[in-house]
């Protein structure tokens, strides 16, 4: 039996719905799982928003940051770590490292 991963289902079956719910209907996303899965889901959502919303990865990353700021992107991440804050910051920075470099100047 081939395993099915949540990020694969999001990408293959729910991409348009994820974009609509998050960007057009004010919906929330809840991600609960280990740190690896949560990182992969975040990266997948970023790619979905970019593709479905006709935006760059950087713009999609900004949307996710805004969703977090508005408490609409929720993560309950678990795993064995002793430096939780450091790991969380590293994961977030890795997810946004996918963003394209913006040209200098005002947004």
Automatic annotation (TrEMBL):
SUPFAM superfamilies per UniProt: Ferredoxin reductase-like, C-terminal NADP-linked domain
Source superkingdom: Eukaryota
InterPro entries according to UniProt: FNR_nucleotide-bd, NOS
Cofactors that this protein relies on: (6R)-L-erythro-5,6,7,8-tetrahydrobiopterin; FMN; heme b
Keywords: Calmodulin-binding, Flavoprotein, FMN, Heme, Iron, Metal-binding, NADP, Oxidoreductase
Entry annotated with the keyword Glycosyltransferase: no
UniProt EC number: 1.14.13.39
Catalysis performed (reactions): 2 L-arginine + 3 NADPH + 4 O2 + H(+) = 2 L-citrulline + 2 nitric oxide + 3 NADP(+) + 4 H2O
GO terms of molecular function: calmodulin binding; metal ion binding; nitric-oxide synthase activity
Family according to the record: Belongs to the NOS family.
Protein name: nitric-oxide synthase (NADPH)
